[in-house]
Design goal:
Shape: elongated
Mean pLDDT: 91
Structural class: alpha/beta
Helix content: 40-55%
Oligomer: single chain
Distance between the termini: 55 Å
Low-confidence stretches: 1-8, 376-382
Strand order of the largest sheet: 5-4-6-7-8-14
Largest sheet: 6 strands, parallel
Order of helices and strands: HEHHEEEHEHEHEEHEHEHEHEHEHEEH
Length: 383
């Protein structure tokens, strides 16, 4: 048998039971913390039966105290844990949606005593791949990835998988990663139903064209927002079933969406348009094209994200942005860090963690976001 076929030699001086006891005691992270058996096993990564036997033994030795029916407390000073190092690849620091996620992650990491290694993907698939190499070299414990290109996702995910680094993917699925973000179809339905109700109420369903502003490179899952919007519109306004549907790729950006809609308006003979957009910058780009063409009254537009720039437009008198579906990116940080800690502590985590959505309109925007006026709002392009 060759040397390479041999399993690694066991350390003859290592006492496994002491190692396991240390693992178990490390589950107690603060003085006086009382934990059930299930939590002790999950935090220590030990089988439940082994954790029970060790707790029983350490209780007999006076190191552990049993509190009540199924709670345990350590008599020892909690072990000082090595702080976790998480990698975060931001979508782009110029985009408001990404900015809010980044700020929330930094706050949440600081509150948990976690070191956050940040890189900027700058909305570029090439840079996203280079940043993955950087985070692998940094030997982070887990990566939070926010990059928009579906075709690059398997390449990025493979780099982390080969390095044994768990991955959380924001908004765009990556193979083997825990997904965190929008319930895209549900968010689309919410927006589409509101568009359909608006068309029914204001135009009696007399619509000539439905335009859906896409972000093709993000792939099939974010596109489900547009599918949901189309289904929602037709569900509440059946005459739309026979309406022409046009897809325009604005790449999720205001400028690109403006140009795509501007070009389309030069050839379309439709009198009334319903526009469903993949995000608020796309919605605003389309709206600016209608305004430039002097055809503002011929459109009703629905955004997604309820980003600050979208909310600012919703406050404009007479706006034709009739709503946007909120994703609440300002809340992502603490929730993502919670999922990351569950993964690192080997607690069960679902394959997809969805955020809650809510329709934001000119009528309720100040109620849902009462503090906007106190904040400096800058324009940008989220995912």
């Amino acid at each position: 048998m060759s040397t390479s076929d041999k399993s690694p030699a066991r350390d003859p001086y290592l006492v496994k039971s002491v190692v396991h006891s240390a693992q178990l005691l490390s589950a107690f992270r603060s003085s006086g913390e009382a934990l059930p058996l299930r939590e002790v096993a999950a935090r220590s990564g030990l089988p439940k039966s082994m954790a029970f036997r060790l707790l029983y033994t350490l209780e007999r030795c006076g190191m552990i105290e049993k509190v009540g029916e199924n709670l345990y407390r350590s008599h020892l000073r909690p072990f000082k844990q090595r702080p976790y190092r998480l990698g975060y690849a931001a979508q782009g620091t110029d985009y408001q949606f990404s900015k809010e996620i980044s700020a929330g992650l930094q706050r949440a990491a600081a509150a948990q005593g976690i070191e956050l290694i940040c890189v900027d993907n700058r909305y570029s698939p090439k840079i996203a791949q280079r940043n993955a190499d950087v985070l692998v070299r940094e030997k982070v414990d887990l990566v939070i990835e926010f990059q928009t290109d579906e075709h690059v996702a398997p390449i990025v995910a493979a780099k982390y998988r080969e390095a044994g680094i768990p991955l959380i993917a924001i908004e765009v699925p990556h193979p083997g990663a825990t997904y965190f973000g929008a319930n895209n179809y549900e968010a689309g339905l919410i927006g589409g139903r509101h568009l359909g109700r608006w068309a029914k109420q204001h135009w009696h369903g007399d619509v000539n064209e439905i335009v859906l502003m896409a972000l093709e490179r993000a792939g099939s899952l974010p596109k489900m927002r547009l599918t949901g919007m189309l289904v929602g519109m037709k569900e509440v306004c059946p005459p739309l079933e026979h309406c022409r549907v046009t897809y325009l790729d604005g790449d999720g950006k205001l400028g690109n969406s403006f140009e795509a809609m501007r070009k389309h308006l030069r050839v379309s003979r439709a009198r009334r348009f319903l526009v469903g957009a993949i995000n608020d910058p796309s919605a605003l780009g389309a709206l600016r094209a209608f305004q430039e063409a002097g055809r503002t009254e011929s459109c009703a537009i629905m955004g997604q994200n309820a980003a600050p720039e979208g909310r600012a437009e919703l406050r404009e008198p007479g706006t034709r942005l009739i709503g946007s579906v909120a994703f609440f990116p300002e809340k992502y940080g603490s929730e993502i860090v919670g999922v990351a800690l569950d993964i690192l502590h080997r607690r069960p985590v679902p394959p997809a963690v969805f955020v809650k959505h809510q329709l934001v309109t000119p009528e309720n925007v100040n109620h849902i976001y009462p503090n906007d006026e106190l904040m400096h709002i800058s324009a940008g392009a989220p995912a």
